[in-house]
Amino acid sequence: MNESWIDPVKSEELAALRHEIHRWPEPGWAEFASTARAVERLEREGFKVRCGAEFVKPESVMGAIPREVEAALADAKRLGVSEALLARMGGLTGVVAEFDTGRAGPTVAIRCELDCVCVDETKDPAHRPNAGGWASERPGYMHACGHDGHQAVMLNLARWVRANADRLSGRIKLIMEPGEEGSRGGRPFAESGVVDDVDFFYALHVGCDVPAGTVIVAPEKFLCTTKADLFFKGSPSHAGMQPEVGRNALLAASTAALALMALPRHGSGMTRVNVGWMQAGEGRNVVPASAEMRIEVRGETEAINALMYREAVRRAEGAAAMYGCTAECLVKGEALDFKADPEAVEAAEAAAKDAPYVERVEHYMNFNGSDDATVLVKRVQARGGRATYIVVGSTLEAGHHQAAFDFEEKHLETLYAIEKALLRRHCARN
Amino acid sequence: MNESWIDPVKSEELAALRHEIHRWPEPGWAEFASTARAVERLEREGFKVRCGAEFVKPESVMGAIPREVEAALADAKRLGVSEALLARMGGLTGVVAEFDTGRAGPTVAIRCELDCVCVDETKDPAHRPNAGGWASERPGYMHACGHDGHQAVMLNLARWVRANADRLSGRIKLIMEPGEEGSRGGRPFAESGVVDDVDFFYALHVGCDVPAGTVIVAPEKFLCTTKADLFFKGSPSHAGMQPEVGRNALLAASTAALALMALPRHGSGMTRVNVGWMQAGEGRNVVPASAEMRIEVRGETEAINALMYREAVRRAEGAAAMYGCTAECLVKGEALDFKADPEAVEAAEAAAKDAPYVERVEHYMNFNGSDDATVLVKRVQARGGRATYIVVGSTLEAGHHQAAFDFEEKHLETLYAIEKALLRRHCARN
Amino acid sequence: MNESWIDPVKSEELAALRHEIHRWPEPGWAEFASTARAVERLEREGFKVRCGAEFVKPESVMGAIPREVEAALADAKRLGVSEALLARMGGLTGVVAEFDTGRAGPTVAIRCELDCVCVDETKDPAHRPNAGGWASERPGYMHACGHDGHQAVMLNLARWVRANADRLSGRIKLIMEPGEEGSRGGRPFAESGVVDDVDFFYALHVGCDVPAGTVIVAPEKFLCTTKADLFFKGSPSHAGMQPEVGRNALLAASTAALALMALPRHGSGMTRVNVGWMQAGEGRNVVPASAEMRIEVRGETEAINALMYREAVRRAEGAAAMYGCTAECLVKGEALDFKADPEAVEAAEAAAKDAPYVERVEHYMNFNGSDDATVLVKRVQARGGRATYIVVGSTLEAGHHQAAFDFEEKHLETLYAIEKALLRRHCARN
Amino acid sequence: MNESWIDPVKSEELAALRHEIHRWPEPGWAEFASTARAVERLEREGFKVRCGAEFVKPESVMGAIPREVEAALADAKRLGVSEALLARMGGLTGVVAEFDTGRAGPTVAIRCELDCVCVDETKDPAHRPNAGGWASERPGYMHACGHDGHQAVMLNLARWVRANADRLSGRIKLIMEPGEEGSRGGRPFAESGVVDDVDFFYALHVGCDVPAGTVIVAPEKFLCTTKADLFFKGSPSHAGMQPEVGRNALLAASTAALALMALPRHGSGMTRVNVGWMQAGEGRNVVPASAEMRIEVRGETEAINALMYREAVRRAEGAAAMYGCTAECLVKGEALDFKADPEAVEAAEAAAKDAPYVERVEHYMNFNGSDDATVLVKRVQARGGRATYIVVGSTLEAGHHQAAFDFEEKHLETLYAIEKALLRRHCARN
Asked: What is the CATH number of domain D2-222+337-427?
């Protein structure tokens, strides 16, 4: 019966849409234009779409940077995004779109990411986006991780769903997450409940140092991580006249930095900690009244990571108390560990085997990094759903997050084929 | 013979010039318009004038902030400062003007300051500069220390010198120092040699918490101080993948900050130390490769201050070495202690007694702060010259460096009268 | 009428008693034999005597070292100190003896110290105690501060009081304080109330770098100080197997040490801080579960010193909290600042002028150290009494607290004469 | 031909000798009586024996504690160890004994340990050594790791070798290493060259949390470790009078402690670090002039461990430099990672299979600890020899290094049987 499936998408359409998206990169929780594009296209294909504040709880949002949000919002308005749509978003981004076939069947979700990376795209004329005239038009921002491609595939997949609506059963959910960089979107999306009814959940990523021709369907060693910003508040005084009056937030932060880096190893698994950025103080001759730092911890398991963060907070708060200051620790991002479900792995393996440009399908790789899809996966699994994470190898021009990043565009067809195959497997009408 | 002295200056002219200067504040080593005004006026009065690079050694300049210098230079050009004059300055500021009477006699120098403070002037309509329409036109900058008045007095004094040229002997030097704030101008001016031939040296300041009606002619307890910027260089690595590869400059700086604040007290006199500002690191997940901090030390004597700075450098360098980093310590400002010479004090006392609005002339006050006039004073004294520092009390609207700072303008007349009297005392032709 | 005073004491008796005391030095709060000697002699002279727990509140005692107390107690028993007397002491030391003339008049107190220093007396045969056969018989302990002489004078003074009882009015209090070294006895004695009824209070000291022939009657710059021991408690774990389980008291203590030394200077006066000793940890491969440190702070005024100690405690407790440990801060000694009362100074001046071997009586010297007589002085002054501190200069063989310390024994006569003269002045019967 | 082997050892003799050794425990590099016993017994069996300074280079010795060495030496003299033997030892301990069959064949070495642990043996009457009257007679020391049993087996094995001399070929080396605790003996023994001619090398250990009945013949995850003592030297001064003069070794050590615990994780493998003990300073009011700490680092590989130690030294030296102090870092112990050779594993497996009380022979266990036999193993392997480490499981009364430690004595027979079988396999005369 497979022969009867309709495919309305030409492969050059995948690349064309990716180019459009690539030109207008938006960082985490500032993806207003990206959200608008997705909403319009998905509604056109008959999906029931919710965006931004329509489903995300504002209090759950982590790591939005006001300056970036405001700039992107202003840009989106200038670009012509409709006021009505922006009103629906209510200052938040992200999309969940559902296609209900009206027939009994499983709920299958596929997730992609909306945000870009904060990096200036290379000016090298040999860089394909430059050569092709579709480089980033927002200085300081670039789709340097492949999320442009992921979106292009998903929005075209919606066309395929509509075209084949009669052949499908169950419900299809397309989930477009903001703020994956910094692991800022997973937790808010999980808490919104968008995956609570999902039976099968898939997240796909291109690249990831996997060679072209290989697809991985059960990667391991996703690291749990917590990103946090720490704010130390003291009070100022003239360092010459009344040094005893001030409450030295710079010393509190410096003491905390040393103690954070000295968090103990863990006997049961790998840990990491970093104080990556710190700023403290005002004038040269003023006892510093404020300090801020950006940290991250990691752990091989959720328990180890949670212990690392708990102890980090304890050390920061103690350091603040030492100097009569206060410390506020705000979580800015979170990703978890990951264990693929055999049923989902099996489906992914079958789907990948027949996809174009695939020579090898393998189960394991050490991911050795973090993706907050894991937060959604845990939520799905906690309710009895099945999930896996699929990596589609590709030869990269430069590594992820680098100014010259690019992947082989033919692998968009691989992603598209895998996604279609997954839906056919789970939702083909009997 | 005193009756025969000519006075070409009306008291409202002092205030008017102060208002003009107040409107265009320029920070340390960026006083291009201020320098230009002074050069033009002083040359008009027959002084032999040198400015900027004509006498300052570029390598001696401390604490110029490139961003501020460039902005002020661009503003000065827009304002119409002549290219020829800017060429003479050669990117540096400051003025030394000499009036040689051609007759044997002492060399008498008076010093004022050119720079403003980095503070936004209050918008309060009751603030006199606002009411009078002569508030700062450069946001973020304000003459909030009285240097505008000092300059206005000195430039008018030049008119008096010319008018009374026949009655004077010896040589009169007017010294207009850039970058007094942060103690950045004294050392370079001293090293330029501009006071090496000076027999009598006077620096005057309005305000300083001295009550209106009082003049102090031999203040004490000027604190020696060294201001420095410290740069720590390490190298980055991915904090998750290769934490062992990076060289952590943030830890070096934090360790140094703690150790600097723990510099020991001194058994023989007061000390101070402050790490007022610090920034370190790049991204949250990168081992920090750079850090910068702004510090100051103080000591009751030159020896104590020098020890404090020497030990600060030792601690910074050791901290850098701990983490495989390097530390660079750049002196950005310097002021010394101060001991008035009896001959100069006597002259100042006599000059102040007859000045308008003066009720009391006193010798001592605890200055409890720093002024790099002390560096020039030491240079003068080392060559056998005499010097003192004169404080003219005034009721202030708000303290020095505050957004609502203002002094009683009638005290410009006091300053002007004292300066004239000092010149008459030392240089009156027999 | 002065001629009629009786003097039952020969000058060689002062030296002889000093030698006896010198042979048996006892450290702070362990002066059992010294207390016994004093009690017996003072009761023999008709004084009403209280000792140890008869008036000292056990809970007020600071800085007693159990090991030293036990050793001295055992030694005292071996030496033949009566069980009855030891029972009266109740494990505590110190003496207050009162001679009530039965006639109206002021209460005059003189205070001396009972304790020795923890230093091994030199073996140099030229050292007078060695030559004379009266060197310390308790290894590790020595009367190296002059307290042996102070006691010898006071116990002989009691003989003089009894001999002249008919000529005296008012009440005479002889106060023999334990644990002056480390400032451990003053506070408990003050809190016992022994000086609460005192009208005139005098503490005398020989030496103190004052030249022989000079007596100082109104010394200045006594430093306030607080001595404290800090105990950090964590919990152990195997550093290789379970490094995350332990609570690292060594890190808590190290963090505290840095932060204590970084306590800010004070704008209103001199401060000092020292972490003089620290021990932490158990085995090389165990996460350290305990740490201990000995610290002191000083301040030019009581308020500054109190702030220093309060902030020290804050920093120690905060550091403990950082690492999940607890900190206990126990005050082990305390001395205050000092201001002599004119009436007492006048009396001391008069008394000193006529004493033997005195060439000069001066008011001021910078004491630049601490003596917890100041705690008693404050208590006296708070109730309207008058007090001063008297230093009797003497040529020292070696400085205070050194193994070869000795003073000129003839100055015991000076001390004795001054004490008699003070009593005659205040208590001579009209 | 196996049937013809002679066994002169009764199993109760193994236990009896163990009891004798257990009564007289000696710590690392202080095993004088243990060395004497071994020399006498091994020479009696015809071995060529060298001991102490006869082969160990004094400059290679690590971690000997003078106080312990002196005490054990004095005890050994009292015990009647001959002067001649002590002279041969030359102040050092350890034994290497060689039996040359005079026939061509491999050189086979077995290694055991001489030293005890610094722990007080329990007084519990149920503890077998107490019940049997063979508990430790040296308070503070106990054979709480099984080394008494290892020695007892080896010394009886020598009897077997002599009894079967005609049946053997090649050379048999019995190596009795001092100071295994703290990994202090392996490196000096390796550098002495005693294993340079060894073809097969075996080290055996009883217990190690392996269940009774199981023998492990190819354990993994031996951790590389370096133990070091760090000495910081500064200079003292009076903390009140001249705080600026001292060089604060306590601050240097505290700064180092924090930085050591903050040594970065390693991307390629497990690391550990501990500052287990620290002492600093002299008196409460003296700027601390000295500090000492005991540290250890570990790493999953030799390269990682070496990096950890190199960086630890860098941090300690930098911290010392910060405060004008010096740091001396002395290695006190060292163990390496370990990889068993298949030939040795095969031999061990075969030997273990037939030993009494053995139910299971397994290859792998995670050793998760350190044994400096690994240093000897690396030396053997570097010259082409083969080696493995054999763990003989046993039910322990309490864990290794605990006061109630004991193993099942029947397993001495297992060890003995394995050692015999290894010699038969490699050295049986054809």
From this structure: 3.40.630.10
